Amino acid sequence: MDATGPTGGPCRERGGAVLEVGPLSGRPGIRASGEIGVTTRRSWENALTELSRRHADVSYVELSGVRFVDVAGVAALAVTAMNLPGGRVVVEQPPPQLPRVLRLFWPSLQRIDVAPR
């Protein structure tokens, strides 16, 4: 689930963007930091795939260290939540654009709860 480079550090994609993703301690979910965009999308989508594999009832996505997420990154999160067999995803401390994009494109999606910064 980690987006790490060959030395075990953060995955630095072309263009200089960095996304680091790892498990949360003490509860089911992931913590991400860096940027979620075109150059880091594969790492983000891989982390969400792993999150959905381990999902039980509630999964947490902690994003306090994420500076930016593009529309496709929010879409990947929304699609992951919609495809869960049940339960919900709680997104904690996302960058400001994430809840706005969710409200704009998925206003009735009830599988995601957003706890703001």
Automatic annotation (TrEMBL):
Gene3D superfamilies: STAS domain. InterPro entries: MlaB-like_STAS, STAS_dom, STAS_dom_sf. PROSITE patterns: STAS. Residues 30-103 form the STAS domain. Pfam families: STAS_2. Signal peptide: none annotated. It comes from the Bacteria. This is Metal ABC transporter ATPase. It comes from Streptomyces mutabilis.
